[in-house]
Amino acid sequence: MKINKQMTLDKLLEGIHKYTEIINEHKGAVLERENLDSLVQAYAVINDDNESNEQFKQTLKETFGL
User: Which domain of life is it from (predicted)?
Assistant: First the structure.
């Protein structure tokens, strides 16, 4: 399966939603808050329309080890 920008954004949104639900249920969920912050940052970087395909691939590699 080929990873593309839109599929990655969709998965990031799923993760953001998941961690937001956990944080709302468990106010002391520190690790989940850190994970949420990372996902939001990754979404912002990947969603940047000025980013080239190579920058996108580098962002995936740095963020997710892909």
Answer: Bacteria
Q: What is the pLDDT of residues 14-64, one digit of tens each?
A: 988 888 888 888 877 788 888 888 888 888 877 776 666 677 667 666 765
Which range of residues forms the domain containing residue 13? 5-64
Q: Is there a contact between 38 and 63 (Cβ–Cβ < 8 Å)?
A: yes
| Residue whose C-alpha is closest to residue 17's, from 4, 35, 3, 31 | 35
Looking at the 3D structure of the chain, how many domains does it have? Answer: 1
Tokens (6 digits) for 32: 């989940």
Has residue 66 got a pLDDT over 50? no
Do residues 31 and 21 lie in contact, with contact meaning Cβ atoms separated by under 8 Å?
no
